[in-house]
Design goal:
single chain, 164 residues, mainly beta, Ganglioside M2 Activator Protein, Chain: A, seven-stranded mixed β-sheet, globular
Length: 164
């Protein structure tokens, strides 16, 4: 599917965390703009700190895919513990932001085992100063999460970005 939004699980079938569904609109994603997301994810075990996340971000350059470097925590980065990052973004003890709060989706580790689903929800993408290499184009992203050497889950995304 060229330029279109697509996703797939890329982990082992025995991985505890599995993305069940994901939809994103509009396609291409517009920055700034509104992004409508719905998703469902299930986890067969409680996910506790440390949760290492490895991102591989590629951008299409003609027929080639170029891996983007990690610059200022954007791009193909490795985050040693996403739990700590969440705690920095949303101080523990404060309520989770909407729409997570409404749908009972946690925003801190540990994440209890179970199924989480987010019905169609709108998020505002602000007019952020993105580096030139992160603007218009087609992207592929691989997100792999692990804890203490055990893979938790892996997702591949493909999408297009259009900045105003």
């Amino acid at each position: 599917q060229v330029g279109g939004f697509a996703w797939e699980n890329c982990g082992d079938r025995r991985d505890p965390v599995v993305l069940q569904s994901l939809s994103v609109a509009p396609d291409p994603i517009s920055i700034p703009g509104s992004l409508r997301i719905s998703a469902a994810v299930s986890s067969s075990k409680t996910i506790a700190s440390p949760v290492k996340v490895v991102l591989v971000v590629e951008k299409a350059l003609g027929d080639l895919w170029i891996q983007l470097p990690c610059i200022d925590q954007l791009g193909s980065c490795t985050y040693d513990d996403i739990c700590t990052i969440l705690d920095n973004l949303i101080p523990p003890g404060t309520t989770c932001p909407e729409p997570l709060l409404t749908y009972g989706i946690p925003c801190h580790c540990p994440f209890k085992a179970g199924s989480y689903s987010l019905p169609d929800s709108d998020f505002l993408l602000p007019d952020v100063e993105l580096p030139a290499w992160m603007t218009n184009g087609k992207y592929r992203v691989r997100v792999a999460a692990s804890s203490r050497g055990q893979e938790l889950g892996c997702i591949k995304l493909a999408f297009s970005l259009q900045s105003q």
